[in-house]
Amino acid sequence: MTAASGPQAVRLRSGDVVRLRQVRPGDASALARAYANLGEQSRYRRFFTIMPELSETILKGATEVDHEHHEALVALPLLSAEIVGECRFIRLPERPDTADLAVTVVDAWQGRGLGSALLARLSERALEVGIEYFTAEVLAENRTMLAILPSLGRVETESHGSVVTARIEIAEPPQQARRELMNLLIAAARGEIVSVPAPLRRLIRVSDEFAHIVRLPVTMLLTALRPRLPTPQPPVPGASGPDQGASGPDQGASGPDQGAS
Questions:
Q1: How many structural domains are present in the chain?
Q2: In whole angstroms, how far apart are CA 179 and each of 51, 59, 151, 174, 186?
Q3: Could you tell me which residues are beta bridge partners of residue 99?
């Protein structure tokens, strides 16, 4: 598994934290729900038509990919199984160094920087499998998407009525990846990186998917996990139970804000 193909937690421009990972065959239902959360304008911008729902054939093709000629990444909020964004490329058979590009973000998550984060990760993945160029057809009125494309590399565009055809020479390395790495290095230098111990992961019921990520910025981790932490109950005066003095899952363990390194 390469760096760009493995699951990764990313902090968006809005401060929200999402997990980015490759799509799986079992994601069909979640993708169907994500499509249902798209407004008519978002659906039209993505498919150039308004379909009431995604057919089983489309969902099968969208989730059963080979991750080399057809790659797809999905975004999920931290500790959630709902897909809030997806992006993909499909390599052109006649031009193996080029792939068609598409990205979709559900309406409630638009404007937070999720589309940019997805495309940055997809660009890394494309370079790993020998793709140097993206092509995309974008509605001329979709100024948000047209503004994102230059962050991926050098862009050439042609207008054909209401549609803009774009060709992007993918930059190496992607600028977004460099910024994220620098942010993590700065956080580490300031001592703002902590380990998430196994007892704490069990206590807050972190999914197996996220359990492999053992280092995150403190503020990111606390913001995401605080709603899941149990509220401590006040002690009963004079009471002594069988569990007093015992080491529970959160006693003696190094938590996210308890001096861990």
A1: 1
A2: 38, 34, 12, 9, 11
A3: 91, 134
Largest Cα separation within the chain, whole Å, is 80
Q: At what angle do helices 28-36 and 56-63 cross, to 10 degrees?
A: 120
β-bridge partners, 20: 8, 75
Environment class of 156 (CB within 10 Å of its CB; exposed 0-12, middle 13-18, buried 19+): exposed
The reply to whether 168 falls in a domain is yes
Q: What pLDDT digit, counting tens, does each position of 112-141 carry?
A: 999 999 999 999 999 999 999 999 999 888
Residue 237: inside a domain:
no
What residue ranges in the chain does DSSP mark as E strands? 8-11, 17-22, 70-77, 85-92, 95-105, 133-139, 153-160, 163-170, 193-195, 215-217
Residue 188 lies in a domain: no
**The pLDDT value given to residue 172:** 77
Alpha-carbon separation of residue 53 from 34, 76, 105, 137 (angstroms): 10, 21, 16, 22
For 49, other C-beta atoms within 10 Å of its C-beta total 7
Q: Is residue 164 part of a domain?
A: yes
- What letter does residue 242 receive in the DSSP assignment? T
Count of Cβ atoms closer than 10 Å to residue 21 Cβ: 18
pLDDT averaged per 10 residues, the chain (length 261): 73 94 95 88 76 86 95 94 95 96 93 94 95 93 91 94 93 58 52 45 42 46 50 53 41 40 41
* CB-based contact 100:108 (threshold 8 Å): no
CATH number for the domain harbouring residue 22: 3.40.630.30
Contact between residue 71 and residue 122 where contact means Cβ atoms under 8 Å apart? yes
**Residue 157 bridge partners (DSSP):** 166
- Domain extent, residue 34, equals 8-177
